[in-house]
């Protein structure tokens, strides 16, 4: 009986503090999806505002239901072949005890699964920014359901599920550099290569209609990202979550400065859009790395991401792909940078004893990070393009040319974002006339 007594004594017990902390973190990550909707919604033209909001918001409905039915089981169930999980007891979440703990941790399974659910909701919403102005809402909703099932759930298992190939290889991804950002960025590239450019791309002005909305969305994302990152340690007992919290703030701040410095040198102005985009680039880049690097390393990662992502957003004009809101330039490039830079800046004193090249480690971790990046990128790119192709050839992915020109909000949602009809004669005329000849500052492509 002695061994059994020892095992019982050593078994984790439910921690009310960690459980409460993780529930708060889950709520913060949920807030990121509406925050993303505002961020994207402000960046599009007036006629596409509501559609952009809805493309993020619908993910809350679709992915939540799929996660309950089978998504959690596919992502975190018993491994099969290092590529997928499954646990029939988790189908419908019908056979999970209220106080049943997530293996090796002090939080209930229900808390872990709802935290991971918010990641699953956010990831397809990220893709939507690349497709602004031109995708049927029904086709988008079906794409979200299929993409979550065929791409996100398996990739989450690769990266975070016990037995997943990237997990077993030792790829470090603290909170989603590969599973979330590279995954979404590669998917965005795959889809836009299939559906093509917006009407008027590189010819008509397509400036953000509301920079205050963009800044509000960026602020909500920054706020929610503390739960996204610090919560991914699943507790608050050893200081690693606190390190991740600090590094999230530090890298984001550094990325804002890096983006703005590049923008000033390249374009001659410090823009609010650049500040908001730089913040998101820093958040993306520190997501995989923040538990493994020091605050000084976080500054370096932030500056590198701010500058290189600012440079990357211009590639769409050079290569001719229409990434409407720079999902590829920020999320794909930022996710790649953050994942690979672990191989250089990991200190061996954070989440593990793995050290990068700058801290006495060899190149092994860098090559592992490369394998994780390339594996997720290739799979998501190819499968997403195939899904978009099939949907385009069956129900059609794009709205009609007339609807795209007139405005996707009215065509798809029978609404408009701003209604000035009740504002009175003079006010209404001023409001409707303003877009014709606005007083604009110098345009900066960022």
TrEMBL record:
Assembly and oligomerization: Homotrimer.
Transmembrane segments: 20-40, 52-72, 105-127, 139-160, 180-199, 211-228, 240-262, 269-290, 296-315, 327-346, 366-391
Main location group: membrane
Protein name: Ammonium transporter
Membrane topology (UniProt): Multi-pass membrane protein
Described purpose of this protein according to its UniProt entry: Involved in the uptake of ammonium/ammonia (NH(4)(+)/NH(3)).
Family: Belongs to the ammonia transporter channel (TC 1.A.11.2) family.
Localization, UniProt: Cell membrane
Biased composition, class Low complexity, residue ranges: 428-439
NCBIfam families per UniProt: amt
């Amino acid at each position: 009986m002695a061994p059994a007594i020892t095992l019982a004594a050593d078994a984790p017990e439910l921690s009310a503090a960690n459980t409460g902390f993780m529930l708060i973190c889950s709520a913060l990550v949920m807030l990121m999806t509406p925050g993303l909707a505002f961020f994207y919604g402000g960046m599009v033209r007036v006629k596409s505002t509501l559609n952009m909001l809805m493309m993020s918001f619908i993910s809350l409905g679709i992915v939540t239901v799929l996660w309950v039915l089978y998504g959690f089981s596919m992502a975190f169930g018993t491994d099969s072949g290092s590529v997928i999980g499954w646990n029939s007891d988790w189908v419908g979440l019908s056979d999970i005890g209220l106080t049943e703990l997530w293996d090796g941790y002090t939080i209930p399974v229900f808390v872990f699964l709802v935290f991971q659910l918010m990641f699953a909701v956010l990831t397809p919403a990220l893709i939507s920014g690349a497709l602004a102005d031109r995708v049927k809402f029904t086709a988008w909703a079906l794409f979200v359901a299929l993409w979550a099932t065929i791409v996100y759930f398996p990739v989450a298992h690769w990266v975070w599920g016990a037995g997943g190939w990237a997990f077993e290889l030792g790829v470090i991804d603290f909170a989603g550099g590969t599973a979330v950002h590279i995954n979404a960025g590669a998917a965005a590239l795959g889809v836009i290569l299939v559906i093509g450019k917006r009407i008027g791309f590189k010819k008509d002005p397509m400036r953000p209609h509301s920079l205050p909305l963009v800044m509000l969305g960026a602020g909500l994302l920054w706020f929610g990202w503390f739960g996204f990152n610090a919560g991914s340690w699943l507790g608050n007992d050893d200081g690693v979550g606190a390190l991740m919290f600090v590094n999230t703030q530090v890298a984001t701040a550094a990325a804002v400065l890096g983006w703005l410095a590049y923008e000033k040198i390249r374009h001659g102005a410090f823009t609010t859009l650049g500040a908001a985009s730089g913040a998101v680039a820093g958040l993306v880049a520190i997501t995989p790395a923040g538990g493994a690097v020091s605050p000084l390393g976080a500054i370096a990662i932030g500056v590198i991401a701010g500058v290189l992502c600012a440079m990357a957003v211009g590639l769409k004009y050079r290569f001719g792909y229409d990434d409407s809101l720079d999902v590829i330039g920020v999320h794909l490039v930022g996710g790649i940078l953050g994942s690979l830079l672990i191989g250089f800046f990991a200190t061996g004193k954070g989440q593990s004893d793995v050290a990068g090249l700058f801290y006495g480690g060899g190149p092994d971790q860098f090559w592992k990070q490369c394998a994780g990046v390339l594996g997720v990128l290739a799979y998501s790119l190819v499968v997403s393009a195939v899904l978009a192709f099939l949907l385009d050839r069956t129900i059609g992915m794009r709205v009609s040319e007339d609807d795209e020109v007139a405005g996707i909000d009215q065509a798809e949602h029978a609404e408009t974002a701003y209604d000035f009809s009740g504002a009175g004669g003079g006010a209404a005329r001023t409001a409707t006339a303003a877009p014709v000849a606005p007083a604009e500052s110098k345009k900066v492509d960022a």
